């Protein structure tokens, strides 16, 4: 039996709660496939010391990371591929079409995840546990102050609605983004959504679920509970 340790990120006030879109993709993939695992929680401060000891790194250490029978694997996409190859008897998240799911992951990150991040970045900054490092790291990454990047929450509703429009159209006809059965694209989108649901629940309906004035996204969100537990 393969033993898996999964490293996830927590912030102040949400200890032991999944909030990161990146780590959620790995947790949800493990849940979807029904693979047992043990969670090790890290913070923005502790991951800088812990993760380089778990898996070799060049540059800034990040999560998710899993250790499977002593082998460290990082990056959610690489982890998903590893789990598909290592557990072929478990339900597939790719269903034979990894390229389609990779396309969706890139689309979701550029058009949905980034705009959701703008809604939560200042709250994450306050809860980071290492405010000076977190601000410097994130402002270097995005190329501007966190405040300018965040703007006003309503600034980002049009972009989110536009990005979600084709997804909403699919979900009007099918129960999942990937059609009749859930797949990795649903995992990716749910990972993006959970960040707002946890960090800014006051915006979750107004800026995501209720953007189209119907219950299409809300019903999809409920249907993904089986891998979000």
Name some characteristics of this structure:
58% helix, Glutaredoxin, alpha+beta, Glutathione S-transferase Yfyf (Class Pi), Chain A, domain 2, Thioredoxin-like_sf, 229 residues
Overall description:
This protein has 229 residues and is an alpha+beta fold. The protein has two domains: 83 residues, 3-Layer(aba) Sandwich (Glutaredoxin), CATH 3.40.30.10; 130 residues, Glutathione S-transferase Yfyf (Class Pi), Chain A, domain 2, CATH 1.20.1050. Helices cover 58% and strands 8% of the residues. It contains eleven helices and four strands, in the order βαβαββααααααααα. The protein has a four-stranded mixed beta sheet, sandwiched between helices. A hairpin with a 2-residue loop joins β3 and β4. α4 packs across α7 and α8 packs across α9. The chain is globular. The model has no long low-confidence stretch (mean pLDDT 97).
What's the layout of helices and strands?
Layout: E1 4-9, H1 21-33, E2 38-42, H2 47-54, E3 65-68, E4 71-74, H3 76-86, H4 98-127, H5 131-142, H6 146-150, H7 157-173, H8 184-199, H9 201-209, H10 216-223, H11 225-228
Parallel strand pairs: 1-2
Antiparallel strand pairs: 1-3, 3-4
Domain GST N-terminal: 10-91
Pfam family, one: GST_N_2
Protein name: GST N-terminal domain-containing protein
Quick description:
With 229 residues, the protein is of the alpha+beta class.
């Amino acid at each position: 039996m393969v033993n898996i340790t999964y490293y996830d990120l927590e912030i102040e006030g949400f200890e032991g709660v999944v909030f990161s879109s990146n780590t959620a993709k790995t947790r949800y993939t493990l849940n979807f496939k029904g693979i047992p695992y043990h969670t090790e929680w890290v913070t923005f401060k502790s991951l800088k010391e812990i993760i380089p000891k778990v898996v070799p790194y060049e540059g800034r250490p990040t999560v998710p990371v899993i250790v499977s029978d002593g082998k460290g694997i990082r990056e959610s996409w690489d982890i998903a591929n590893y789990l598909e190859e290592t557990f072929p008897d478990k339900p597939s998240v790719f269903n034979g079409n990894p390229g389609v799911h990779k396309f969706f992951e890139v689309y979701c990150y550029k058009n949905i995840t980034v705009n959701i991040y703008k809604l939560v970045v200042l709250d994450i900054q306050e809860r980071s546990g290492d405010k000076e490092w977190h601000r410097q790291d994130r402002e270097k990454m995005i190329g501007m102050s966190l405040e300018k990047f965040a703007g006003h929450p309503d600034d980002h509703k049009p972009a989110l609605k536009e990005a979600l429009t084709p997804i909403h159209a699919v979900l009007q006809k099918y129960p999942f983004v990937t059609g009749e059965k859930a797949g990795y694209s649903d995992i990716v989108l749910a990972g993006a959504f959970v960040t707002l649901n946890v960090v800014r629940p006051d915006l979750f309906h107004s800026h995501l679920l209720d953007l189209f004035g119907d219950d299409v996204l809300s019903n999809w969100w409920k249907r993904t509970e089986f891998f979000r537990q």
